[in-house]
Amino acid sequence: MNSDSGHIGLEDFATSAAASATPSAPAGAPPPDDKDPTTVGTSQMEAVYDIPVKITAVIGTATMPVSQLLRLGRGAVVELNRKLGEAVDIYANNRLIARGEVVVVDDNHIGVTMTEILSASPTPTAQG
Asked: Do 37 and 86 reside in the same domain of the chain?
């Protein structure tokens, strides 16, 4: 997990986008000014919409010595640290953002339903 204080989390983008979203103008209202802060934020947000984000769903983890890893063969079962039905962790670019449940999307694919969106935690700042 990355705790660099210079990075902005997804929650910060969502908050910024919600705060800078342009409300619909009432009938007869003058057109929005180009220097209006609510329209500037929206155009800045559009610049990040096409940036790829790697989404990872972790169903569990296991730790074992290399000797045991080398003995694994086809059909071997690795016991994970989670129980059946327990929530999976969902990461965006290696940052935990949510928890969810595994679901069947169609006959050949699985997906994850987000059941809990994690709130932004303050990142520690270096003081010196």
From this structure: no
> What does residue 112 show for φ and ψ, rounded to 5 degrees?
-130, 130
Half-sphere exposure of 14 (CA within 13 A, CB side): 8
pLDDT tens digit sequence for 64-121: 999 999 999 999 999 999 998 899 999 999 999 999 999 999 989 999 999 999 987 6
How far apart are alpha carbons 17 and 115 in whole angstroms? 22
Q: Do 92 and 112 share a structural domain?
A: yes
Our count of domains for the chain comes to 2
Q: Which domain holds residue 114?
A: 55-119
**Is the same domain home to 62 and 113?**
yes
**One-letter amino acid for residue 22 of the chain:** T
Answer yes or no: is pLDDT of 27 > 60.
no
> Quick one: how many helices (H) and strands (E) in the chain?
3, 4
Q: What is d(CA 52, CA 43) in angstroms, rounded to the nearest whole number?
A: 18
In a domain, 84, yes or no: yes
Give the sign of the dihedral formed by CA 36, CA 39, CA 44, CA 47: negative
Distance CA 98, CA 115 (A): 8
